[in-house]
Amino acid sequence: MGYEDYEIVMGLEVHSELKTNTKIFCDCKNEFGGEPNTHCCPICTGMPGTLPVLNGKVVEYAIKAGLATNCKINQFSKQDRKNYFYPDLPKAYQVSQFDLPLCYEGEVEIEVEGEIRKIGITRIHIEEDAGKLNHEIGGTLVDYNRCGIPLIEIVSEPDFRSPVEVGIYMEKLRTILLYADVSDCKMNEGSLRCDVNLSVRKKGEKTLGTRTEMKNINSFSFAVKAAEYEAKRQIKVLESGGTIIQETRRWDEAKGITISMRTKEEAHDYRYFPEPDLMPIITTDEQILKWKASLPVMPDVRKANYIKDYGLGSKEAGILVASRKIADFFEAGASCSKNPKAVANWIISEVYSRLNEDEKEQGPMPIKGEDLGTLVNLIEEGTISGKMAKTVFEKMWQTGKSPATIVDEEGLKQNSDEDALRTIASDVLNNNEKIVADYLGGKEAAIQSLMGQMMKATKGKANPKMVIDLLKELLEAMR
Hints:
By secondary structure, this protein is of the alpha+beta class. The protein has helices spanning 56-68, 163-180, 220-239, 285-294, 299-310, 314-321, 324-334, 340-351, 357-361, 369-380, 386-399, 403-410, 418-430, 433-440, 447-457, 464-477, and strands at 6-17, 72-73, 76-77, 80-83, 93-96, 103-112, 115-128, 132-136, 139-143, 150-156, 192-202, 212-217, 247-252, 257-263, 273-274, 281-282.
Protein backbone atom coordinates (compact mmCIF):
# COMPACT_ATOMS: atom_id res chain seq x y z
CA MET A 1 0.00 0.00 0.00
CA GLY A 2 1.06 3.59 -0.51
CA TYR A 3 0.64 7.01 1.02
CA GLU A 4 -2.59 7.59 -0.91
CA ASP A 5 -4.17 4.53 0.75
CA TYR A 6 -4.15 6.19 4.17
CA GLU A 7 -6.25 8.93 5.73
CA ILE A 8 -4.70 11.58 7.98
CA VAL A 9 -6.67 12.59 11.08
CA MET A 10 -5.59 15.70 12.97
CA GLY A 11 -6.74 17.95 15.76
CA LEU A 12 -5.13 21.20 16.88
CA GLU A 13 -4.53 22.79 20.27
CA VAL A 14 -3.87 26.48 19.66
CA HIS A 15 -2.42 28.62 22.45
CA SER A 16 -2.91 32.36 22.19
CA GLU A 17 -1.60 34.96 24.63
CA LEU A 18 -4.23 37.49 25.66
CA LYS A 19 -3.35 41.19 25.33
CA THR A 20 -4.15 42.22 28.90
CA ASN A 21 -2.02 44.87 30.60
CA THR A 22 -1.12 42.59 33.49
CA LYS A 23 -0.71 38.86 34.05
CA ILE A 24 -3.48 36.44 34.88
CA PHE A 25 -3.09 36.32 38.68
CA CYS A 26 -0.86 39.28 39.63
CA ASP A 27 0.01 42.89 38.72
CA CYS A 28 3.20 42.09 36.80
CA LYS A 29 3.39 43.57 33.30
CA ASN A 30 2.14 41.41 30.47
CA GLU A 31 4.62 42.41 27.79
CA PHE A 32 7.14 40.71 25.55
CA GLY A 33 10.86 41.05 26.19
CA GLY A 34 12.64 42.63 29.13
CA GLU A 35 15.69 41.47 31.01
CA PRO A 36 15.31 37.92 32.38
CA ASN A 37 13.32 37.65 35.61
CA THR A 38 12.36 41.36 35.75
CA HIS A 39 8.63 40.94 35.02
CA CYS A 40 7.83 38.51 37.81
CA CYS A 41 6.88 38.55 41.48
CA PRO A 42 6.30 36.07 44.34
CA ILE A 43 2.83 35.22 42.97
CA CYS A 44 3.80 34.29 39.41
CA THR A 45 6.95 32.50 40.60
CA GLY A 46 4.94 30.43 43.08
CA MET A 47 6.46 31.55 46.36
CA PRO A 48 4.90 29.86 49.45
CA GLY A 49 2.15 31.86 51.14
CA THR A 50 1.08 33.84 48.06
CA LEU A 51 -2.48 33.89 46.75
CA PRO A 52 -3.60 34.47 43.16
CA VAL A 53 -6.35 36.91 42.13
CA LEU A 54 -7.96 36.31 38.74
CA ASN A 55 -7.67 39.15 36.22
CA GLY A 56 -11.24 39.89 35.07
CA LYS A 57 -10.08 40.95 31.61
CA VAL A 58 -8.84 37.41 31.01
CA VAL A 59 -12.37 36.06 31.42
CA GLU A 60 -13.79 38.79 29.15
CA TYR A 61 -11.24 38.18 26.39
CA ALA A 62 -11.63 34.39 26.57
CA ILE A 63 -15.41 34.62 26.27
CA LYS A 64 -15.09 37.10 23.38
CA ALA A 65 -12.87 34.55 21.61
CA GLY A 66 -15.53 31.92 22.29
CA LEU A 67 -18.34 34.09 20.94
CA ALA A 68 -16.27 34.88 17.84
CA THR A 69 -15.83 31.15 17.18
CA ASN A 70 -19.52 30.33 17.71
CA CYS A 71 -18.99 28.64 21.08
CA LYS A 72 -21.46 28.07 23.88
CA ILE A 73 -20.49 29.76 27.15
CA ASN A 74 -20.30 28.06 30.54
CA GLN A 75 -21.73 30.63 32.93
CA PHE A 76 -20.46 28.57 35.86
CA SER A 77 -16.83 27.65 35.36
CA LYS A 78 -13.84 26.90 37.54
CA GLN A 79 -10.07 26.60 37.44
CA ASP A 80 -7.98 23.52 38.13
CA ARG A 81 -4.42 22.58 38.93
CA LYS A 82 -2.64 20.62 36.23
CA ASN A 83 0.21 18.91 38.03
CA TYR A 84 3.51 18.14 36.37
CA PHE A 85 7.15 18.82 37.15
CA TYR A 86 9.29 20.82 34.76
CA PRO A 87 12.01 23.38 35.54
CA ASP A 88 10.13 26.30 33.93
CA LEU A 89 7.05 25.68 36.11
CA PRO A 90 8.05 26.94 39.59
CA LYS A 91 4.85 25.83 41.36
CA ALA A 92 5.08 22.31 39.88
CA TYR A 93 1.51 22.81 38.66
CA GLN A 94 -0.18 25.00 36.07
CA VAL A 95 -3.48 26.71 36.78
CA SER A 96 -5.72 25.71 33.88
CA GLN A 97 -9.27 24.39 33.38
CA PHE A 98 -10.32 20.77 33.15
CA ASP A 99 -13.98 19.73 33.20
CA LEU A 100 -15.69 23.15 33.14
CA PRO A 101 -13.99 25.32 30.49
CA LEU A 102 -15.33 28.81 29.79
CA CYS A 103 -16.32 28.01 26.18
CA TYR A 104 -17.33 24.81 24.40
CA GLU A 105 -18.91 23.34 21.24
CA GLY A 106 -18.01 25.99 18.68
CA GLU A 107 -16.97 25.87 15.05
CA VAL A 108 -14.88 27.72 12.48
CA GLU A 109 -15.50 27.60 8.74
CA ILE A 110 -12.54 27.34 6.38
CA GLU A 111 -12.47 27.33 2.59
CA VAL A 112 -10.37 24.61 0.97
CA GLU A 113 -10.17 24.58 -2.84
CA GLY A 114 -13.53 26.33 -3.10
CA GLU A 115 -15.24 23.99 -0.62
CA ILE A 116 -16.44 25.15 2.81
CA ARG A 117 -15.29 22.89 5.66
CA LYS A 118 -16.44 23.20 9.26
CA ILE A 119 -13.87 22.60 11.98
CA GLY A 120 -15.39 21.87 15.36
CA ILE A 121 -14.11 23.65 18.48
CA THR A 122 -14.23 21.29 21.44
CA ARG A 123 -13.40 23.91 24.06
CA ILE A 124 -11.64 27.17 24.85
CA HIS A 125 -10.19 27.46 28.33
CA ILE A 126 -7.92 29.88 30.17
CA GLU A 127 -4.60 29.01 31.74
CA GLU A 128 -1.30 30.53 32.78
CA ASP A 129 1.87 30.24 30.74
CA ALA A 130 5.08 28.69 32.07
CA GLY A 131 8.55 30.24 32.03
CA LYS A 132 11.23 29.83 29.39
CA LEU A 133 14.34 27.65 29.45
CA ASN A 134 17.49 29.08 27.90
CA HIS A 135 19.91 26.29 27.06
CA GLU A 136 23.51 27.48 27.15
CA ILE A 137 26.92 25.86 27.17
CA GLY A 138 27.44 24.32 30.56
CA GLY A 139 23.83 24.41 31.70
CA THR A 140 20.30 25.70 31.42
CA LEU A 141 18.97 29.02 32.73
CA VAL A 142 15.34 29.79 33.55
CA ASP A 143 13.57 33.08 32.73
CA TYR A 144 10.31 33.41 34.67
CA ASN A 145 9.09 36.58 32.90
CA ARG A 146 6.56 34.53 30.95
CA CYS A 147 5.17 32.77 34.03
CA GLY A 148 1.58 33.86 34.58
CA ILE A 149 1.07 35.31 31.09
CA PRO A 150 -2.66 34.70 30.37
CA LEU A 151 -3.41 32.17 27.65
CA ILE A 152 -6.44 30.71 25.99
CA GLU A 153 -6.16 27.20 24.63
CA ILE A 154 -8.45 26.55 21.65
CA VAL A 155 -8.92 22.81 21.23
CA SER A 156 -10.37 21.58 17.95
CA GLU A 157 -12.14 18.36 17.09
CA PRO A 158 -10.07 15.86 15.02
CA ASP A 159 -11.63 17.29 11.84
CA PHE A 160 -8.52 17.96 9.74
CA ARG A 161 -7.81 15.57 6.87
CA SER A 162 -4.90 17.28 5.11
CA PRO A 163 -1.91 19.41 6.15
CA VAL A 164 -3.09 22.31 3.97
CA GLU A 165 -6.27 22.55 6.06
CA VAL A 166 -4.12 23.11 9.14
CA GLY A 167 -2.46 26.17 7.61
CA ILE A 168 -5.77 27.62 6.39
CA TYR A 169 -7.38 27.09 9.81
CA MET A 170 -4.48 28.72 11.65
CA GLU A 171 -4.66 31.78 9.41
CA LYS A 172 -8.43 31.98 9.84
CA LEU A 173 -8.20 31.63 13.61
CA ARG A 174 -5.53 34.35 13.76
CA THR A 175 -7.81 36.68 11.78
CA ILE A 176 -10.74 35.98 14.12
CA LEU A 177 -8.68 36.67 17.26
CA LEU A 178 -7.35 39.90 15.77
CA TYR A 179 -10.88 41.01 14.86
CA ALA A 180 -12.04 40.24 18.41
CA ASP A 181 -9.03 42.28 19.65
CA VAL A 182 -8.12 39.77 22.35
CA SER A 183 -4.57 38.90 21.19
CA ASP A 184 -1.85 40.49 19.07
CA CYS A 185 -1.17 37.01 17.58
CA LYS A 186 2.52 37.77 16.97
CA MET A 187 3.83 34.32 16.14
CA ASN A 188 7.44 35.51 16.19
CA GLU A 189 6.95 36.46 19.85
CA GLY A 190 5.18 33.22 20.72
CA SER A 191 1.78 34.79 21.32
CA LEU A 192 0.18 32.34 18.89
CA ARG A 193 1.40 28.77 18.65
CA CYS A 194 -0.10 25.35 18.15
CA ASP A 195 0.25 21.69 18.98
CA VAL A 196 -0.67 19.28 16.17
CA ASN A 197 -2.14 15.90 17.18
CA LEU A 198 -1.87 13.51 14.25
CA SER A 199 -2.65 9.90 13.48
CA VAL A 200 -3.15 7.92 10.30
CA ARG A 201 -5.46 5.05 9.38
CA LYS A 202 -6.25 3.09 6.25
CA LYS A 203 -9.04 4.63 4.20
CA GLY A 204 -12.41 3.20 5.16
CA GLU A 205 -11.41 2.40 8.75
CA LYS A 206 -13.40 4.05 11.56
CA THR A 207 -11.05 3.43 14.49
CA LEU A 208 -8.52 6.21 15.10
CA GLY A 209 -4.84 5.34 14.95
CA THR A 210 -2.29 6.02 17.65
CA ARG A 211 -1.51 9.73 17.66
CA THR A 212 1.57 11.78 18.23
CA GLU A 213 1.64 15.41 19.32
CA MET A 214 3.96 18.00 17.81
CA LYS A 215 4.44 20.81 20.31
CA ASN A 216 4.78 24.60 20.17
CA ILE A 217 4.80 25.25 16.43
CA ASN A 218 4.87 29.02 15.87
CA SER A 219 4.53 29.30 12.10
CA PHE A 220 1.78 28.46 9.62
CA SER A 221 4.26 26.94 7.19
CA PHE A 222 6.01 24.95 9.95
CA ALA A 223 2.65 23.48 11.02
CA VAL A 224 1.92 22.37 7.45
CA LYS A 225 5.43 20.94 6.93
CA ALA A 226 5.42 19.15 10.28
CA ALA A 227 2.05 17.54 9.52
CA GLU A 228 3.21 16.45 6.06
CA TYR A 229 6.40 14.89 7.42
CA GLU A 230 4.79 13.21 10.43
CA ALA A 231 2.02 11.64 8.33
CA LYS A 232 4.57 10.15 5.94
CA ARG A 233 6.73 8.96 8.85
CA GLN A 234 3.81 7.17 10.51
CA ILE A 235 2.69 5.55 7.24
CA LYS A 236 6.25 4.35 6.61
CA VAL A 237 6.41 2.83 10.11
CA LEU A 238 3.08 1.03 9.63
CA GLU A 239 3.95 -0.18 6.14
CA SER A 240 7.17 -1.70 7.46
CA GLY A 241 5.26 -3.62 10.13
CA GLY A 242 6.08 -1.29 13.01
CA THR A 243 3.90 0.28 15.70
CA ILE A 244 3.26 3.97 16.32
CA ILE A 245 4.25 5.08 19.81
CA GLN A 246 2.07 7.71 21.49
CA GLU A 247 4.58 10.43 22.18
CA THR A 248 5.35 14.14 22.08
CA ARG A 249 7.56 15.26 19.22
CA ARG A 250 9.00 18.57 18.06
CA TRP A 251 9.51 20.00 14.60
CA ASP A 252 13.15 20.59 13.62
CA GLU A 253 12.98 23.15 10.81
CA ALA A 254 16.69 22.94 10.01
CA LYS A 255 16.48 19.19 9.35
CA GLY A 256 12.88 19.17 8.12
CA ILE A 257 11.89 16.33 10.46
CA THR A 258 9.97 15.68 13.68
CA ILE A 259 12.01 14.45 16.64
CA SER A 260 10.82 12.45 19.65
CA MET A 261 10.86 14.35 22.97
CA ARG A 262 9.01 12.11 25.45
CA THR A 263 6.19 9.59 25.69
CA LYS A 264 2.81 11.32 25.70
CA GLU A 265 0.94 11.78 28.97
CA GLU A 266 -2.80 11.19 29.19
CA ALA A 267 -5.04 13.64 31.05
CA HIS A 268 -5.17 11.42 34.15
CA ASP A 269 -1.38 11.54 34.39
CA TYR A 270 -1.61 15.24 35.26
CA ARG A 271 -3.75 14.56 38.38
CA TYR A 272 -6.08 17.50 37.79
CA PHE A 273 -7.93 18.79 40.83
CA PRO A 274 -9.88 22.01 41.54
CA GLU A 275 -7.77 25.07 42.34
CA PRO A 276 -8.61 25.72 46.03
CA ASP A 277 -7.29 29.30 46.06
CA LEU A 278 -9.61 30.60 43.33
CA MET A 279 -13.36 31.08 43.38
CA PRO A 280 -15.61 29.71 40.60
CA ILE A 281 -16.05 31.95 37.56
CA ILE A 282 -19.68 33.08 37.28
CA THR A 283 -20.81 35.20 34.32
CA THR A 284 -24.23 36.75 33.80
CA ASP A 285 -26.40 37.02 30.71
CA GLU A 286 -25.91 40.79 30.79
CA GLN A 287 -22.11 40.47 30.73
CA ILE A 288 -22.15 38.02 27.84
CA LEU A 289 -24.57 40.17 25.81
CA LYS A 290 -22.39 43.24 26.45
CA TRP A 291 -19.23 41.45 25.29
CA LYS A 292 -21.00 40.04 22.25
CA ALA A 293 -22.25 43.51 21.28
CA SER A 294 -18.70 44.87 21.51
CA LEU A 295 -17.42 42.48 18.82
CA PRO A 296 -17.07 43.89 15.30
CA VAL A 297 -18.67 42.35 12.22
CA MET A 298 -16.58 39.21 11.76
CA PRO A 299 -14.61 38.33 8.59
CA ASP A 300 -17.00 35.73 7.13
CA VAL A 301 -19.95 38.13 7.32
CA ARG A 302 -17.90 40.98 5.87
CA LYS A 303 -16.70 38.81 3.01
CA ALA A 304 -20.26 37.83 2.10
CA ASN A 305 -21.32 41.49 2.27
CA TYR A 306 -18.49 42.64 0.01
CA ILE A 307 -19.40 40.06 -2.61
CA LYS A 308 -23.11 40.89 -2.42
CA ASP A 309 -23.01 44.67 -1.96
CA TYR A 310 -19.93 45.65 -3.96
CA GLY A 311 -19.71 42.90 -6.55
CA LEU A 312 -16.23 41.81 -5.47
CA GLY A 313 -14.87 38.37 -6.29
CA SER A 314 -14.37 35.83 -3.52
CA LYS A 315 -10.58 36.13 -3.76
CA GLU A 316 -10.54 39.93 -3.60
CA ALA A 317 -13.04 40.00 -0.72
CA GLY A 318 -10.96 37.40 1.12
CA ILE A 319 -7.83 39.52 0.84
CA LEU A 320 -9.60 42.57 2.24
CA VAL A 321 -11.17 40.83 5.25
CA ALA A 322 -7.95 39.03 6.20
CA SER A 323 -7.07 42.12 8.26
CA ARG A 324 -9.61 44.04 10.32
CA LYS A 325 -7.59 47.21 9.84
CA ILE A 326 -7.64 46.81 6.04
CA ALA A 327 -11.34 45.89 6.05
CA ASP A 328 -12.18 49.00 8.08
CA PHE A 329 -10.04 51.06 5.69
CA PHE A 330 -11.85 49.63 2.67
CA GLU A 331 -15.28 50.26 4.14
CA ALA A 332 -14.36 53.88 4.88
CA GLY A 333 -13.26 54.36 1.26
CA ALA A 334 -16.16 52.46 -0.27
CA SER A 335 -18.72 54.44 1.74
CA CYS A 336 -17.81 57.69 -0.03
CA SER A 337 -16.78 56.37 -3.44
CA LYS A 338 -18.71 56.06 -6.69
CA ASN A 339 -16.72 52.90 -7.51
CA PRO A 340 -16.09 50.62 -4.48
CA LYS A 341 -14.54 47.94 -6.73
CA ALA A 342 -11.88 50.45 -7.79
CA VAL A 343 -11.19 51.24 -4.12
CA ALA A 344 -10.67 47.52 -3.51
CA ASN A 345 -8.29 47.28 -6.48
CA TRP A 346 -6.26 50.25 -5.22
CA ILE A 347 -5.94 48.64 -1.79
CA ILE A 348 -4.87 45.28 -3.17
CA SER A 349 -2.43 46.68 -5.75
CA GLU A 350 -1.07 49.78 -4.02
CA VAL A 351 -1.79 49.82 -0.28
CA TYR A 352 -0.91 46.19 0.50
CA SER A 353 2.44 46.41 -1.30
CA ARG A 354 3.50 49.28 0.96
CA LEU A 355 2.72 47.58 4.27
CA ASN A 356 4.61 44.82 6.04
CA GLU A 357 2.72 42.13 7.96
CA ASP A 358 2.77 43.99 11.31
CA GLU A 359 1.66 47.26 9.70
CA LYS A 360 -1.35 45.53 8.14
CA GLU A 361 -2.66 44.84 11.64
CA GLN A 362 -1.29 47.59 13.87
CA GLY A 363 -0.25 51.21 13.76
CA PRO A 364 -1.78 54.15 11.91
CA MET A 365 -2.31 54.13 8.15
CA PRO A 366 -0.50 56.99 6.33
CA ILE A 367 -3.74 57.90 4.52
CA LYS A 368 -7.45 57.77 5.35
CA GLY A 369 -9.84 55.36 3.67
CA GLU A 370 -12.10 58.29 2.84
CA ASP A 371 -9.22 59.98 0.98
CA LEU A 372 -8.68 56.88 -1.15
CA GLY A 373 -12.41 56.91 -1.95
CA THR A 374 -12.10 60.57 -2.96
CA LEU A 375 -9.11 59.79 -5.17
CA VAL A 376 -11.18 57.18 -7.01
CA ASN A 377 -13.96 59.75 -7.42
CA LEU A 378 -11.53 62.23 -8.99
CA ILE A 379 -10.69 59.60 -11.60
CA GLU A 380 -14.35 58.70 -12.17
CA GLU A 381 -15.26 62.38 -12.60
CA GLY A 382 -12.45 62.97 -15.08
CA THR A 383 -10.70 65.47 -12.83
CA ILE A 384 -7.45 63.48 -13.06
CA SER A 385 -6.31 60.59 -15.22
CA GLY A 386 -5.39 57.15 -13.97
CA LYS A 387 -1.73 57.95 -14.58
CA MET A 388 -1.98 61.20 -12.62
CA ALA A 389 -3.76 59.32 -9.84
CA LYS A 390 -0.66 57.21 -9.16
CA THR A 391 1.37 60.40 -8.68
CA VAL A 392 -1.31 61.82 -6.39
CA PHE A 393 -1.48 58.57 -4.40
CA GLU A 394 2.28 58.55 -3.87
CA LYS A 395 2.17 62.11 -2.53
CA MET A 396 -0.82 61.23 -0.33
CA TRP A 397 1.17 58.34 1.17
CA GLN A 398 4.21 60.55 1.79
CA THR A 399 2.45 63.61 3.18
CA GLY A 400 -0.98 62.52 4.42
CA LYS A 401 -2.57 65.37 2.47
CA SER A 402 -5.97 64.96 0.83
CA PRO A 403 -6.04 64.18 -2.91
CA ALA A 404 -7.91 67.42 -3.70
CA THR A 405 -5.22 69.46 -1.94
CA ILE A 406 -2.44 67.71 -3.86
CA VAL A 407 -4.21 68.13 -7.20
CA ASP A 408 -4.60 71.89 -6.54
CA GLU A 409 -1.06 72.40 -5.22
CA GLU A 410 0.59 70.45 -8.04
CA GLY A 411 -1.68 71.76 -10.81
CA LEU A 412 -2.63 68.22 -11.81
CA LYS A 413 -6.23 68.88 -12.74
CA GLN A 414 -7.10 67.22 -16.01
CA ASN A 415 -8.10 69.32 -19.00
CA SER A 416 -11.63 68.31 -20.02
CA ASP A 417 -12.51 71.48 -21.94
CA GLU A 418 -13.92 70.02 -25.16
CA ASP A 419 -13.62 73.20 -27.23
CA ALA A 420 -10.01 73.78 -26.22
CA LEU A 421 -9.07 70.15 -26.84
CA ARG A 422 -10.81 70.18 -30.24
CA THR A 423 -8.67 73.17 -31.30
CA ILE A 424 -5.47 71.46 -30.16
CA ALA A 425 -6.52 68.21 -31.90
CA SER A 426 -7.06 70.06 -35.17
CA ASP A 427 -3.59 71.59 -34.93
CA VAL A 428 -2.03 68.17 -34.21
CA LEU A 429 -3.73 66.62 -37.26
CA ASN A 430 -2.66 69.51 -39.50
CA ASN A 431 0.97 69.18 -38.34
CA ASN A 432 1.17 65.39 -38.74
CA GLU A 433 -0.06 64.69 -42.28
CA LYS A 434 1.91 61.45 -42.73
CA ILE A 435 0.56 59.94 -39.49
CA VAL A 436 -2.95 61.00 -40.49
CA ALA A 437 -2.46 59.36 -43.90
CA ASP A 438 -1.25 56.16 -42.24
CA TYR A 439 -4.34 56.04 -40.05
CA LEU A 440 -6.70 56.72 -42.94
CA GLY A 441 -4.85 54.06 -44.90
CA GLY A 442 -5.77 51.40 -42.36
CA LYS A 443 -3.00 51.67 -39.75
CA GLU A 444 -5.29 52.30 -36.78
CA ALA A 445 -2.41 52.05 -34.30
CA ALA A 446 -1.15 55.36 -35.71
CA ILE A 447 -3.71 57.12 -33.54
CA GLN A 448 -1.49 56.41 -30.54
CA SER A 449 1.20 58.63 -32.01
CA LEU A 450 -1.37 61.41 -32.46
CA MET A 451 -2.48 60.79 -28.88
CA GLY A 452 1.11 61.28 -27.74
CA GLN A 453 1.29 64.59 -29.60
CA MET A 454 -1.90 65.73 -27.87
CA MET A 455 -0.59 64.83 -24.43
CA LYS A 456 2.67 66.62 -25.17
CA ALA A 457 0.80 69.74 -26.26
CA THR A 458 -1.30 69.73 -23.06
CA LYS A 459 1.63 68.79 -20.79
CA GLY A 460 -0.05 65.47 -19.97
CA LYS A 461 -3.21 67.08 -18.61
CA ALA A 462 -5.66 66.28 -21.38
CA ASN A 463 -8.50 63.90 -20.59
CA PRO A 464 -7.32 60.72 -22.40
CA LYS A 465 -10.82 59.46 -23.22
CA MET A 466 -11.91 62.81 -24.60
CA VAL A 467 -8.73 63.04 -26.67
CA ILE A 468 -9.26 59.63 -28.27
CA ASP A 469 -12.90 60.38 -29.00
CA LEU A 470 -12.08 63.76 -30.54
CA LEU A 471 -9.24 62.39 -32.69
CA LYS A 472 -11.43 59.60 -34.01
CA GLU A 473 -14.24 62.04 -34.75
CA LEU A 474 -11.98 64.44 -36.66
CA LEU A 475 -10.17 61.66 -38.52
CA GLU A 476 -13.40 60.02 -39.61
CA ALA A 477 -14.59 63.40 -40.89
CA MET A 478 -11.48 63.51 -43.13
CA ARG A 479 -12.25 60.24 -44.96
